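Translate sequence into structure tokens.
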Amino acid sequence: MKKAILVLVPFFALALSGCSIGQQQSPVTQNIPAIPGGLLSQNEKGSVWKSEDGGQTFKVKSTVDQNRSIDKAEILSITFHPTTPKTVILGTISDGIFKTDNGGDSWNPIPFPPQRIYSFILDRKNPDNRMFVSGVVNTRGKIFRTDDAGANWREVYTEPGSNTFVSSLAQDPWNTNVIYAGTSAGVILKSSDAGETWKNIGGKSEYGIVSDIVFDATKHDSVSFLSYQDKMYHSTDGGNTWIDWSTVKQQATKSGVTPVNPVQILTLVADPSRSGVVYAGTVSSGIYRSQNDGKNWTKLNIIESATKFPIRSIAVDPKNPDHLVFVAGKSFYRSQDGGATWSVTALNSDRSASVVAYDPFDSQFLFVGLRTLK
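Result follows.
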């Protein structure tokens, strides 16, 4: 089965609050200048920023209509429609879901029952109608599915008790009926029938919060997950068994080889076109790249000041794997040589950047989502 193009940038959020859509006299997206280098006269409000020149400049794109905007929403994810250009869906932490059909010039809300959202999937096989979202209702974590573009939502999974939630969702690239879910208690679930039934494929307290689930570019059943602010686990058999690479590294250390070990990993991203290649963004030590599914890592030589900020989001150009971008603080970083050198664009925004994504149809288009980060 041919792999559909889809960019999904999930990000785990634990205790951050958003702000509901409010009435405003003028949309924040009107008449905002695009100045080279991203330099604006003052910090601009806006939850979504878009570049049409590969990241050299950005414009705020947060309009709903003449009287409303999502300039204060906390952006959780940016998802592109796999077959329709200019159609993008935003997941927010507590303001719901929004869709644009015009590349971000205006956004339309999609009704969703829970107030708080943790993860979002746009179905690759039926993207016009089916979506999966994890949220919390009455302190219990749940997974919902819609088959009619959000008109109706059906609960397909719920946690047995309070104070745990479904922190991540991911859809198998080759079999869209296969859905993976990770919880805040370190449990990993798998459905083979689009969420109708589930089975446990891993659950240990040492896993901690399962915050990212990613798939290899070419190898079927090759899947990895991130234990939030900890380490990566890898499976070659669709999650039936998991490899803890740190055990292998300890053995390598005893043999006289000192491994590079990324610590406090915040985000895990798989290269969409190169098998075995994954990137890890960390709390305070920058970005690491592995070319063998996380077994060994090398540290990228990013700009030193950027390592002082948490690397919460990394994106790889789906058309050219040597093109990398990431966000740190209120700046956007781009490399066109595999991470050897970097250009920097300032985002004079009212909050920090937390999500960055390439448009799969045109790599000159990039979106950045903002959140209030502690």
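Note: Confidence is low (pLDDT under 50) at residues 1-41.
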